[in-house]
Sequence to fold (568 residues):
Amino acid sequence: MAEPVFKHQYRVIYAECTVGNHVYYARYLDMLEVARGEFFRQAGASLLQLQESGTVFPVIDLNIAYKGPARYDDLLTIELWINEMKGIRLTFGFQVLQPAGHRLAEGQTRHVCASIDEKPKRIPKELIARFQSFVRVQKNPD
Amino acid sequence: MAEPVFKHQYRVIYAECTVGNHVYYARYLDMLEVARGEFFRQAGASLLQLQESGTVFPVIDLNIAYKGPARYDDLLTIELWINEMKGIRLTFGFQVLQPAGHRLAEGQTRHVCASIDEKPKRIPKELIARFQSFVRVQKNPD
Amino acid sequence: MAEPVFKHQYRVIYAECTVGNHVYYARYLDMLEVARGEFFRQAGASLLQLQESGTVFPVIDLNIAYKGPARYDDLLTIELWINEMKGIRLTFGFQVLQPAGHRLAEGQTRHVCASIDEKPKRIPKELIARFQSFVRVQKNPD
Amino acid sequence: MAEPVFKHQYRVIYAECTVGNHVYYARYLDMLEVARGEFFRQAGASLLQLQESGTVFPVIDLNIAYKGPARYDDLLTIELWINEMKGIRLTFGFQVLQPAGHRLAEGQTRHVCASIDEKPKRIPKELIARFQSFVRVQKNPD
Fold:
């Protein structure tokens, strides 16, 4: 059975590539932010709207494994899903794929739900309802 | 006679280089910010202190000519001086040099002095006194 | 009569914004590269294809005037056109617009056509034909 | 007993800060590259020299925990040590500290030793000798 996943396409530019024509290791994190932003937007609550209503999701930790190089002009697919959504915690799993489907990177970013003054708070119920379909059960990334 | 100039050394990292091992054209602007920050700090008024006391210097325009590629691990010298300092206007001239002295980039960034809420205001007299020695007379960049 | 222009939409992310919620001055250059890349692609010759066939277009200088701040999550429109295309020279004019049409930045980037080993060469005739409709006559940016 | 550690100081610039005046989560990876570069250089073998002699150390995975925000103009201390150095594997532990010593981030980056054409190879004996004093025994990061 297909697992729930959000997909975002991303075109690699020169600014992201370094010597040897591969995407610099930090730039995947920028890409992931783009994809998460579109995930929230498509779910009906952009990060800007959430921020303006007093809810932010800072990253508290992340891990990423690099499996192969992304190259200039590659049209990558970034896949996102939710590994955990409970109380104040929201964890995204991700993988980054080449056009042919080869996996270039995978990992997860863990976030807390917080108020603007950075105090943890429970994820709003409305968001939980909107995100529920992207929660992956029994994800065992390792 | 030697002209007044502020010098800052900057080591190129992989993140700044792109395919073909040259520094990405936008990264020179980041380097220039580093150098301007150190210029203000050495003059006795860091940009953070100025900001906290209500004075900022947003860039209103810039031009830059690229003369040759900076490479990974190059220890560049960024030279700054002041082309204009009058009323609300502060203009820096700059050049970026290789270790051997070869010029890689040159140009200028024009700033206005403004309050935190982005209203133009005259450059504080104290700063004018501190920066005076870096004003270059009769600079003809072209 | 409408002037020829290429339009590309670009969504601002957090990574590009700095203190005070405005896009960092160097990030406009990254955006412009994205737009130029799509310009070439739409004209039928991606920069990657051109590079693989031995033609590159390094920036030799640029100027940019900043008119107002772009903000997080703004969906910007980057407009490109050609100010000069002759011999080895290719010059793009650009402006960056807010959703409501307010102009945030404008300027031009000058490129030379070169071989992979960075020797200047004439722009291939095929490209000239493809780009001709974007040449703006009598553009006087200043 | 004091554990072996390499320390590098790093000044935060505007380009690295985002809305709310905290360093963007991806920029710590850029900083870490700066620190690793200086670690290799101080050990007598710059990454450029190693690359030129056919040895590179691509990152294969990393994890990072964010403990608190770094701010504009903070003079951070990046501490590096070696968690593992064996065969083809080289793992750095790190933490990023505020001037007052408060820990802002910690984690590790795992690298493989490889030839320029990206084939894994054993870490050169000379490097092992040079790096030995930075190997931390019984590091339990969690």
